[in-house]
Amino acid sequence: MTPNAKGALFALTAFGIFATHDVVIKYLGATYSPFQVIFFSTLMSFPLVSFMMMRDPLPGTLRPVHPWWTAIRTTAAMLNGMCAFYAFTVLPLAQTYAILFASPLLITLISIPLLGEQVGWRRGAAVMVGLVGVLVVLRPGSHPLSMGHLAAMGSAVFGALSAIIVRKVGNDERSVVLLLYPMVANFIVVGVLMTFVYRPMPLLDLGAGATISLLGFFAGLCLIMAYKTGQAAIVAPMQYSQIIWATAYGYLLFDETIDTFTVIGAGIIIASGVYIVARESSNDDSQTPVLRTRSRGYGASFRIAPFLNRARRGPQGPSDTPAE
């Protein structure tokens, strides 16, 4: 098996596990507030993150070099998680993924003012086509947009903003700072919000919260292996396989069906995303905002990207921009 084939296989495994992770979120969301689900999944991620952080060989403090950018990014990561968890709770899985797939398109747009990226007319046109795909999924005017639709769009926007900020300051900030601050903020802020909507959780549901953390952890490890083994241009589009998992899980577990407009819109969004990744993979490495912001995360559990970059360059390598 070629390295790219192995990378694609690891990526498909990772995103299959991530889809299962989102199913557990949806299961808990039927009973508990997203704040409560986020709080307990974050709480149970701390031991896993601690083991990962023990391997960080770099000296220094946990004070950010860019406190304001770190604060904005931390806020965006929190809102990203809140919006995503709520959207998974109230929308069909496939429809949620179709909207979240707009995030790479938004990363390309936001990279223009924040990073000064040069986006040519081909990539610009691909972004516009992809956003048309989002409109096909949402179909504004045909029926009222729900809070779930707005939350999914909010997650795509906040996720893209968070990723771009990491790209902007990641060369200066320690990976552990980028990793830890959103988790601590989630623990404090979401913990306070949870007190207003808290419901006692039996042992089974607490175990489901721990499962969210474990699935995110193991999926992250698979994604690290995918990017160590295969080229980013091969691995990155594998995220779109989640729409297949979402359709199957939705049908089997939640009695969901995928409508024609969601299929068409998701197809347009995926085609646009794949085209952008293909274009960026053929350009100079400094002009690849999507490929450099390629790992998944919704703000509730740890980010694997700092470790992904370290695994790729070795523990003593130069600083590199962590992905989101």
Low-confidence stretches: 311-324
Helical segment count = 14
Total discrete domains: 1
How would you sum up the global shape? globular
Amino-to-carboxy terminus distance: 29 Å
What portion of residues is helical? 55-70%
Biggest sheet: strands, sense, closure?
none
**Which band does the percent of strand residues land in?**
under 5%
Rg on CA atoms, Å: 19 Å
Secondary-structure-based class equals mainly alpha
Explain this structure.
It is a single chain. This protein is mainly alpha-helical. It has helices at residues 3-29, 34-43, 46-53, 67-90, 93-100, 103-115, 121-138, 147-169, 175-194, 203-229, 232-235, 242-254, 260-281, 305-313. The chain has 14 helices and no strands. α5 runs parallel beside α13 (260-281).
List keywords for this structure.
single chain, 324 residues, mainly alpha, 14 helices, 70% helix, 0% strand, disordered C terminus
Write a short abstract of this structure.
The chain is mostly helical and 324 residues long.
